[in-house]
Amino acid sequence: MGNEEMKFHLTKSEKHWILYDVGNSAFVLLISTIIPIYFNYLAESGGLSDTEYLAYWGYAASAATLAVALLGPVLGTLADTKGFKRPIFLFTILVGAIGCVSLGFARQWLVFLIVFIIAKIGYNGSLIFYDSMLSDITAQERMDRVSAHGYAWGYIGSCIPFVACLALVLGSGVVGLTMEAAMAIAFAVIAAWWLLLSLPLLRGYRQKYYVERRPHAVAESFRRLGRTFANVKKEKKIFIFLLAFFFYIDGVYTIIDMATAYGTALGFATNGLLLALLLTQVVAFPFAILFGRLAQQYDTARLITVCIAAYFCIAVFAMFLAHQWQFWVLAVLVGMFQGGIQALSRSYFTKIIPSKQSGEYFGLMDICGKGASFVGTTLVGVVSQATGNINLGVGAIAVLFAVGIFFFQLTVRTEGAHTQEI
């Protein structure tokens, strides 16, 4: 990584924060690889067609993200209260991890989808609080690189339990296990990994920026949320960024959520899909760190624009997938820009919002991110089901990236960024 990277030393708090990304990313990798394939196995057993399988998977992903988009701002606002962020963070982790374990006991496709929605709500909910902790655990000038390290180590670290689980599932017959039993063990391993790597952050985190506790904390959180919505309309830079984020992150999350399901519906070999998406994680590691380093030399906004433009090209390319080798190319391209666009968007937003209200604002950001993902996955499902052509659903994603670039350029030209309270 070079001498410059070697000189960059992470603090204890930063390392604990990054470890959570390593822990929860194993669940993300499971969602984007093994879980859709296992759901396809359950769906076929239940008599669903390939088109119905892809549509119902899209609806389930949409339901989970919509639920968090509605709950997120309220929970985030409540978590900004002194002493509240860590316990609510812990609660969301437990919901996600227990839901993950429970997936191993759901053998009917509809029950499996319901449990999956609950587990994904826990995971997505935890990210609101995790992202908002960035201003508490590092200085403003380090945010780009620390955020990038979080994604980078999350990508590569998640491969450890994933490879073990993949070997178990693919070799289940050799060791005398049924597919269902192997999957149950895999879900338990991922949940344990997630919980264990959450402990350092849960033990060591200190809420540096907060709102003082007041009577009737829940009611007060709703009042503060109302004031935040009003302020966002006045803070034009924040408002336009959230609008841009809504559009461009739609494509990113939709590609993450639907990649394996898309490849499976196109009839690509399962093993090839899993290995290609594992390659995405490996490629994403150095490129996420690279974007963190580039942010020290180039304007963060310019780098985000490059990432959005690259994703536009990726979405166009995805429309014409016909062979498995093309899926491998897609996996590499996604890996190159996935960490950069997510990490830099997180740190860019952290810099332009008030530190004491980070939970509130990340809750709003979650509405835009998860709300967009709801639109994207639903769009793919509806268009695929209505036309019988999966590629047409994917094509709409490119348009959203184009709109995202337009609004992000407006963000860059808009004055009024809120500086961090140090």
Mean pLDDT score, rounded? 82
Rg over C-alpha atoms, rounded to the nearest angstrom: 20 Å
Helix content: over 70%
Distance between the termini: 30 Å
What fraction of the residues are assigned to beta strands by DSSP?
under 5%
Q: What is the fold-level CATH name, i.e. the topology?
A: Growth Hormone, Chain: A
Q: Treating each run of at least 4 consecutive H or I residues as one helix, how many helices?
A: 17
Number of E-state strands: 0
- Let me know the largest β-sheet: none
Helix and strand content put the structural class at mainly alpha
Run of helices and strands: HHHHHHHHHHHHHHHHH
- Total number of domains: 1
CATH homologous superfamily assignment = MFS general substrate transporter like domains
Overview of this structure, please?
By secondary structure, the protein is an all-alpha fold. The protein has a single domain (11-413), classed as MFS general substrate transporter like domains (Growth Hormone, Chain: A, Up-down Bundle), CATH 1.20.1250. The protein contains 17 helices and no strands. α4 (50-79) runs antiparallel to α5, α5 (85-102) runs antiparallel to α10 (179-204) and α14 packs antiparallel against α15 (324-352). The chain is globular. Residues 1-6 and 417-422 have low confidence and may be disordered.
